[in-house]
Amino acid sequence: MQQDELIRLFESFNKLNVLIIGDVMMDSYLWGDVERISPEAPVPIVSVKSRESRLGGAANVALNVKAMGANPILCSVVGNDQKGDEFINLLKLQQMDTRGVVKSTSRITTTKFRVIGNKVQMLRVDEEVDNALNQEDKKAFFDRFKSIINETNIEVIIFQDYDKGVITSDLIQLVMDIAIEKKVPVAVDPKKNNFINYNNVTLFKPNLKELKEGLNIDFNARNKKELGKAVSHLKSKLNAQMVLLTLSEDGVFIDYENNGEKGSTILPSHIRMISDVSGAGDTVISVASLCLAKNVEPSVLAAISNLAGGLVCEKVGVVPVDKQVLLTESLKLNISS
Known about the structure:
The protein has about 325 residues and is α/β, with parallel strands linked by helices.
């Protein structure tokens, strides 16, 4: 891939329809200043200056997909409550498709409250339920999925799992059966509960903690031989074409089989002024999935995704990647060579 091909790749993202399945949430922020410690307890007092609500969880993946120019279609469940209404309104403000979002009378909308003082996160409070969907909600959710995939030309499916109950083992199987039948690639950002249930996916993207917990193993991640053995075992267990393992400050490791060729490599992270790692994984899976839909060479897919994840860590809070900045940095770093 030459530099002009990389530019055309980024332009081609604009034509993609991406179906995102997973747990969504509201990210609610309180922004303020800290000037003193509370006399009631040894904790800082945050004087609130502003409030903000953002789309989070799988919806942040949708925002990243949209930021890259593609068309995200979100499939999830929210509560039939005020936060659920706010969530759908935020989707509409972003001009995103809302037909895949089911409102449940038996659940609340997951909300993450973050208190930011002097541009630093001081506290997070979670309001959520994480039990599996009941049969009524599960049927409504799957019916929405089937309607979308039968009516729209979907180029890639993303499972964004936060262990909040939307994704179950039987749902995974139902989706995978249709995806395989329609020859749609599937990318997964997993969590612990369903870790070993994502069989036959195209790309599987755990982080190091998730890999160790999901397989119930321990190893020295800085030992390339041990790392490669663990990832290879995971890839074989799931029958996945690619495993993209994020290693935080140590970059990413990819093990792949592509067009009959096998390979693996570690790509180091790029030096960044880290402000907040929130949402970096969402960005990585978003960019990787777009590259997957365009059948990009695995090493290039990993390099662009790794770079994207680092870029969003320079911002405070959960924010999507900047497409033009990512392209500029990719060209500057000779990712295309």
